[in-house]
Design brief:
This protein is 30% helix and 17% strand. It is of the alpha/beta class and 347 residues long.
């Protein structure tokens, strides 16, 4: 008998998601700021999506960031190294009503989990994926990771890293991913804004967080986050607004042929009308890829939602397939299947 009782989601607060566990990150670690931002965001997401507390699930792999499920008062799984995306995919496909958040680091995502990373983007699984990028292996004490800069000396690269680093944004977009954003751990306001946008997006919303490892890679993002340098080194993107940045708010990004270029408004006849206007929803990934790739000294680092293109989610496609088979299949239950084809009786 169907219940006639109507239930409404309980209004949630930040305190509802705070765990009673001791947070065992080093003092000064950027992960603390990320945790506080997520705690603040969950009640907002719950209200916007009409979710109860039990509808949230936090999944992680291995690494400093991956202690996250212990520090959130929700359902959670602390998985194995590099496999959190597979767990998160299974949870979301099996129970689409759950709001699944995946927490991973640059090593967990880009090295042992690299295959899962590109496929969760390609499949457009409806999860929110936060990737903490401190460009080092922190939990295992300072080995270089797939995002460590070429030439940097670490415990496993005493002569400097020989290899080119991965750029997570390039991997997401190159894997046909539909949502990519980037934030810094020193800007909680922007983090919370982007996390909410990521949670509201229907699909694999992957957010790279430039985080500081105070012990093994301190100030690796210092040029981007430093008080005196951040204005010239950060381009904070907003949909429908020109790409303007700089201490004097007079620098901008234009398209020069097939490449992006930094210009100064008021010089060489450049006006604000010449500056590119950000459109994260366009299907054409060309500009998005170039924005994600801006990591060289001549460009600022693009922050905010870089790409957010609507596309069918994997979980929707799977369940549409299930419903289709229910309609067209001659088998409506297990008894129908067992009694189909050639059958016989034993006396």
């Amino acid at each position: 008998m169907e219940s006639k009782i109507q239930t409404q989601p309980v209004k949630l607060s930040k305190e509802d998601f705070e765990s009673d566990q001791m947070v065992k990150w080093c003092p000064g670690c950027g992960d603390h700021a990320i945790l506080r931002s997520v705690e603040a965001v969950f009640p907002v997401v719950g209200e916007k999506l009409n979710l109860n507390k039990e509808d949230f699930v936090v999944v992680s792999g291995i690494g400093c960031s991956s202690r996250f499920p212990y520090y959130m008062n929700t359902y959670g799984i602390h998985g194995i190294h590099g496999r959190a995306a597979a767990l998160a995919t299974g949870i979301k496909v099996a129970n689409p009503k759950l709001n699944v958040w995946m927490i991973s680091g640059d090593g967990d995502s880009m090295a042992i989990g690299g295959n899962h990373f590109i496929h969760v983007a390609r499949r457009n699984v409806d999860i929110t994926y936060l990737m903490f990028n401190n460009r080092i292996y922190g939990l295992t004490k300072g080995q270089y990771s797939p995002t460590t800069f070429k030439g940097q000396k670490t415990k496993t690269s005493p002569q400097g890293v020989f290899e080119q680093p991965f750029n997570p944004g390039e991997l997401v977009i190159g894997s046909r991913g539909k949502f990519f954003a980037r934030v810094v751990d020193t800007n909680p306001k922007l983090m919370q804004k982007v996390f909410i946008e990521a949670a509201m997006y229907r699909g694999a919303s992957i957010v790279e967080i430039l985080a500081n490892c105070v012990i093994f890679n301190n100030k690796i993002h210092g040029d981007i986050t430093g008080r005196d340098t951040k204005a010239d080194n950060q381009l904070i993107l907003e949909a429908g607004k020109p790409m303007i940045f700089g201490k004097e708010n007079n620098k901008g990004i234009v398209l020069d042929g097939t490449r992006l270029k930094v210009v100064t408004i008021g010089e060489d006849g450049v006006t604000e009308d010449d500056i590119l206007v950000h459109d994260p929803t366009t299907e054409d990934a060309g500009i998005h890829m170039m924005l994600a790739s801006m990591m060289t000294p001549e460009f600022p680092v693009a922050l905010g939602v870089i790409r957010a293109t609507p596309f069918q989610t994997l979980n929707d496609a799977v369940w549409e397939s299930v419903e289709h088979e229910k309609e067209v299949s001659p088998y409506k239950n297990v008894d129908d299947l067992l009694n189909s084809g050639n059958t016989w009786e034993i006396d």
